[in-house]
Amino acid sequence: MLYCYTANKRLNSVDLVLVSGEMSSYEESESKFWRKAKENPFVPVGMAGFVAIVGYRLMKMKSRGDTKMSVHLIHIRVAAQGFVVGAMTVGVLFSMYRDYFAQPIEQEQKATQPK
Prior knowledge:
The protein is mainly alpha-helical. It has helices at 13-20, 25-39, 42-59, 69-112; strands at residues 4-6, 9-11.
């Protein structure tokens, strides 16, 4: 690992790439995010759903009636976690389908095609 000391800050190799000007760490993390999103498409869906549920419920906080704040926050957390767990479950089922059912069918079709 390369180190560069500026203003008593130890930089790692990603920061050194930023210093050299080849590719910023923001662009590198953005490309990593899109690569991971293509591998697991339900991760961004879960993240977006989590943000949407929390945002919606926080906006509706004024109209919660005589429900205690702690109970309302617990309901927000349970709803957001439920959506994320559901997205994870659908993602796992999708990846299992893709790995165990879709690929063997494609391999069988390639094997039966005349050369």
